[in-house]
Amino acid sequence: MTDDTSRPRQPGDPGAHPDPHWAATGRPGPPEQHPASGANQPTAPLGVPPLAVPGPRRSGTVMGAVVLSLIVGLVAGGVGGAVGYHFASTGSGVTSALDVPAPQAEPAANLPVGSVEQVAQKVTPSVVQLRVTGAQTADEGSGIVLSSDGLILTNNHVVEPAATGGGNVTAVLQDGRMVPVQIVGRAPTFDLAVVRAQGVSSLTPAQLGSSSNVRVGQEVVAIGSPLGLSGTVTSGIVSALNRPVRAGGEGSGQETVLDAIQTDAAINPGNSGGPLTDMQGRVIAINSAIASLGFSNGGQAGSIGLGFAIPIDQARRIASELVHNGQATQAVLGVSVPAGQQLENSAALVQQVTPGSAAAAAGIQPGEMITRVGDQVIDSGDALIAAIRSYPPGSQVTMTIKNSAGTTRQVHATLGSQQVGTR
Questions:
Q1: Nearest 5°: phi and psi at 261?
Q2: Average pLDDT over the chain, rounded to whole?
Q3: Which of 28, 96, 111, 312 could cysteine-pair with 118, CB 3.0–4.6 Å?
Q4: CA-to-CA distance for 229 and 232, rounded, in angstroms?
């Protein structure tokens, strides 16, 4: 993919719509510089003395003004003398920005709190680039350092080609070192994986935050290696929460449906597995997928401001299980719903109920519709799958059910557990 460079619209340019790949900060240009203008003051002709005009007796106030005028005149004379000396010493009245010394760089300790600069300085040392080779593929992604001895969190679809195709993974650290990586565990249904960089120590672990208090509109920063450009920093806001997204690799045979955080921070191929942080540099999500316009000729689509990330509360739990067990668990309700179907009545239609499941115990019947899980609106089968998987197994949830007659009721269910993932 190539970067598009924007310019102001010129006469004759086709169309008035912006390029969907274009993004800019909209910074104003430097202020205009105007030459200093000093009006010439009239002077009396030589040899003609000024007229003596009698006037009233000056008061003390008038005398004070005269003294003040004299002081101002002396100061102005000093400035004029300095300027005159400069002109005389350089032999020219031309000033140049090249003659002005550059200001000293702002010390890192003085970066504004909550600024993108401060976040980048804090988080970048905890982000690595992952280079992956499979049987017939080679790709790149990003990862987040979890421990000083090399544990790294990333997306399953980043390392899946190596895991299933007999390939290998290499981590490129912030200091430029390239080290081999071993896969610790993968959870395809969550699009998460943990790997370990071999033979390293003293890495800088990232600070993990919480996604439970993330709000729409809050500022965020994304860091990763889009198109292999390691250490790339972009920023934006949280655009939406609880966005059901199908993502992940194609060879796992397991559905990946994310209950994602949506952001307009630029995310491109290669950002997968990198952090989405708040403005204190705490990781709140793992960048995983983008929506893009159609493309052709086998090229890769780029950011159009629709990026999706896995909430860190879910990622933390799955990563911990992968590290300790090599596998993970996911919550199960025990119903079958149409995948991805958007109904006119905005709900998840229950097609089947598994005997002995949490749904059966709660009295949910085939043909009924689930409209809410907790406070979260359910408007499709994918939304229900994503919402249920966002809970740990054993969680108690309240659901709103609507039957074919339009009557609603609330039911309570204790979610079951299912083992997922592999090394």
A1: -90, 125
A2: 81
A3: 111
A4: 6
Say how many C-beta atoms besides its own lie within 10 A of residue 225's C-beta: 26
Amino acid identity of residue 243, one-letter, is R
Condensed to tens digits (0 to 9), the pLDDT of residues 226-267 reads 999 999 999 999 999 999 998 865 444 557 899 999 999 999
Of these residues, 21, 139, 191, 264, which one is catalytic? 191
Instruction: Tell me, yes or no, if 126 is annotated catalytic.
Output: no
Give the span between the Cα atoms of 16 and 408, in whole angstroms: 48
313 annotated active-site: no
Q: What angle do CA 62, 65, 67 make, to 5 degrees?
A: 115
Structure tokens at 134: 């499979």
Contact 287, 307 (CB under 8 A): yes
Q: What are phi and psi of 61, to 5 degrees?
A: -65, -45
d(C-alpha 222, C-alpha 127), whole Å: 11
Residue 66 is which amino acid? V
Helix (H) or strand (E) holding 89: helix 60-90
Q: Annotated catalytic residue: which of 21, 126, 139, 157?
A: 157
Marked catalytic residue, from 126, 142, 252, 272: 272
Q: What burial letters (b/e) apply to 358-368, b meaning 16+ CB within 10 Å?
A: bbbebebeeeb
pLDDT-wise least confident of 112-116, 141-145, 211-215, 330-334: 112-116
Active site residue 157: yes
Q: Which domains does the chain have, with CATH numbers?
A: 116-291+303-325 (2.40.10.120), 328-420 (2.30.42.10)
Centroid of chain to Cα 297: 29
